[in-house]
Amino acid sequence: MDPTEDSVSRAPVEPGRPLRADARRNVDALLRAALTVFERFGVDAPMRTIASEAGVGVGTLYRHFPQRSELIREIIRREVDACVEAAAVLGASLPPGEALAAWVQRLVDLAGTKRGLGPALHSGDAAYQSLPDYVVGQLTPALRALLDAAAVAGDICSDIDAREVLLASMRLAAPASQGDVAEARRMVALLIDGLRFRAHAAAHAATTDG
User: Fold this and answer.
1) Class of the domain covering 72-209
2) What is the radius of gyration, based on Cα positions, of the chain?
């Protein structure tokens, strides 16, 4: 335990209460700093190191995140929310098939976020028990929208299950959490190539039969 913990107020921010702009900036800085510090020193790095990296006092850190597990959980939730937003942006700015492929690569970035967090996330801490449901619950609808658009465009078949594709993609992206981002990108790209090939093969068979 960080010895500083005993000397700092642990009163959490009131749930649901909107943060002031300066407080929001502090939270954003703390989350970015935590990712950097955890990757560099591991999840047991002193909390004061994170506060220093963020350019705030350790009291500010504990006001927003009274427990280390709350900080780690918020990092993952933030990254998941960013993936959901990315799905909408990519879907609006790229052709359907390209948007789908680009977003699945975005899952590699999400897996990379877990680098250094593994020991905590697999520790059995009750604080993390809701994370798997949150990840799947948020990402599945985002992926389903991309899959539906790609199916309408003829890039993939229409009978693809979004949850299955999501779980497969996340498993293939897992090497990124160990630092092998290149392998993860190749693996998820192969998955999308397979979905596209299946659609093209079905279209070719329909043309031939006709």
Assistant:
1) mainly alpha
2) 20
> 3-66 sits in which CATH class?
mainly alpha
Residue span(s) of the chain under CATH 1.10.357.10 come to 3-66, 72-209
Q: What is the pLDDT of residue 200?
A: 72
Q: Could you read off the pLDDT of 137-171 as tens digits, one per residue? A: 999 999 999 999 999 999 999 999 999 999 999 99
Lowest mean pLDDT across 72-76, 117-121, 139-143, 167-171: 117-121
Q: What is the mean pLDDT of the chain?
A: 87
